[in-house]
Amino acid sequence: MTSPSVVDLLYHLGLLVFFSSILQLLRFLYLHLRPTSLPKYHHGPSPWALITGASDSIGRAIACELASHNFNIVLHGRNPSKLETVRSSLKKACPKREIRIAVADAASPDWRSPVDSVTKVVHDIHLTVLVNHVGGLGGLVKPPLKSFEDITHDEIEKLINLNLRFPTQLTRALLPIFSEIHGPKLILNIGSIGGASGIPYSAVYSGCKAFNHVWSQALDAEM
């Protein structure tokens, strides 16, 4: 016969799991159903948003969403042709918005050059939103899934530059611009499931995303 102490332990453990699941559900609902906070960052005479990695996919969609909320947009990417396509699409959808382009290779061995290129484009604007979206494998590793033993030193450096060094250094470089602007500012770092639980055969990428996750938490507490 099971002793009362074991029954009590299982009962309280079940309650803990139940309330933990409820808390996760409430967080999910709050995240996806709460009203947007974007109006808080739309202040000043002409607010701007910078989106890195805005040529495709999520970055492009974020740029479209911000433009629809009356932000002027700076599109960053490494392919001028793709950026021009996105700019044309945004101007057609939001003709009153100003759109700038910052061409820079975030995976470059010299991080200073791409960071300086982007900083020069935004130095004279009322920047209130920075979205660090650039990242991923970006065709840097072939094949894209590769064991840590097989990945080359050059591939490691490019992955670190793209996913970790560039967004970190760019954010630091933009802080003086942010500090001159009165009112709330937003720094949004786009993460990945790889940062929460490492993805096999993408060890370097997962490590970079884990850094971004903890770095974002530290910035949130610090700023």
Structure description:
With 223 residues, this protein is of the alpha/beta class. Helices cover 51% and strands 12% of the residues. The chain contains six helices and five strands; from the N terminus they run αβαβαβαβαβα. It has helices spanning 4-33, 57-68, 80-93, 112-122, 153-179, 203-222, and strands at residues 47-51, 72-77, 99-103, 126-132, 186-189. Strands 3-2-1-4-5 form a five-stranded parallel β-sheet, with helices on both faces. Strand 2, helix 3 (80-93) and strand 3 (99-103) form a beta-alpha-beta unit. The longest helix is centred in the first third of the chain and has 30 residues, at 4-33. The radius of gyration is 21 Å and the shape is globular. It starts with a helix and ends with a helix. The model has no long low-confidence stretch (mean pLDDT 92).
Strand order of the largest sheet: 3-2-1-4-5
The number of distinct helices, counting runs of at least 4 residues, comes to 6
Strand content: 5-15%
Largest sheet: 5 strands, parallel
Number of strands: 5
Uncertain residue ranges: none
What coarse outline follows from CA principal-axis ratios? globular
**Termini separation (Å)?**
56 Å
Order of helices and strands: HEHEHEHEHEH
Mean of residue pLDDT?
92
Which structural class should the secondary elements be placed in? alpha/beta
**Taking Cα atoms only, what radius of gyration do you get, to the nearest Å?**
21 Å
Which terms summarize this structure?
single chain; 223 residues; five-stranded parallel sheet; alpha/beta
